[in-house]
Amino acid sequence: MKIENELLFFEHTRCGDLQVWQKDSVRSLYIRDKKAIQSQLDMAKKEKLLLPHSRAMMSFLLFQEQPQSILLLGLGGGSIIHFLVYWFPALKITAIEINEEIVNIAKKYFALSTLKTSSPRALVNIEIADAFAYLKRKNQKNINAILVDLHDGASLPDFLYTADFMEHCFHQLSSGGVLVYQNIHRTAACF
Q1: Does residue 2 have a pLDDT over 80?
Q2: DSSP β-bridge partners for residue 72
Q3: Which residues are known to be catalytic?
Q4: Which pLDDT does position 73 carry in this prediction?
Q5: Which residues partner with 121 through β-bridges?
Q6: Which tens digit of pLDDT belongs to each residue from 169-187?
Q7: What is the pLDDT of residue 135?
Q8: 16 vs 18: CA distance, rounded Å
């Protein structure tokens, strides 16, 4: 029996309305309104990326076939983490999310809280922080890919367009590391 769209969560926050909807086994996270989909996850097949921009972001795998470490700026529902942990179970992933409520939603509604038990080798660290401030205080030089998925449903942060942001990203990357970011038109670009 197929179920209709079901509202699982709604909260009005300073960042706009947050909503989690489910249809059949697919859960969707919306920010601001039901037009701005942030994340989507098939709860029965978590290893699949459903949104085109999320799949496009995986283009970094053309350059880093066996990544060891990923920095994800922006968490959403965590579908990218589920995908990466499934295909690269020993991958070290650090996700930076500024909104604690988004982290709570990802854990409760998108199965991020059960990730360690389903993938015991998973090395996933989620930090609540401003992405640019995080980059400024770190100087790792060992990240194979930085995936930038920062948007609030309407726009991207202004700092993404600065040379300072790019410089801080490149100081994190290993030799041959790749920077991937989602632009305002919901496509991905690799550098």
Answers
A1: no
A2: 95, 147
A3: 149
A4: 96
A5: none
A6: 999 999 999 999 876 555 5
A7: 95
A8: 6
Tokens of residue 110, six digits: 């998108």
Chain-centroid distance of CA 105 in Å reads 13
Buried b (16+ CB within 10 A) or exposed e, 165-184: beebbeebbbeebbbbbbee
Q: Where along the chain do its domains lie?
A: 46-190
Q: Which pLDDT score is estimated for 36?
A: 74
Say if domain 46-190 classifies as CATH 3.40.50.720: no
- From residue 180, alpha-carbon distances to 57, 66, 104, 152 in Å are 6, 16, 25, 18
**CB-hemisphere CA count at 13 Å for 15?**
22
Q: Which of 42, 168, 148, 136 is nearest to 95 (CA)?
A: 148
Q: Are 16 and 34 in contact (CB under 8 A)?
A: no
pTM of the model: 0.90
For residues 143 and 89, what is the distance between their CA atoms, to the nearest angstrom?
16
Average pLDDT over residues 28-41: 84
CA-based torsion, 3, 28, 153, 102: positive or negative: positive
Question: CB 142: neighbour CB atoms within 10 A?
Answer: 12
pLDDT in tens, 87-106: 999 999 999 999 999 999 99
For the chain, the helix, strand and coil percentages under 3-state DSSP, each to the nearest 5 = 30, 35, 35
Query: With contact defined as beta carbons under 8 Å apart, do 58 and 75 qualify?
Result: no
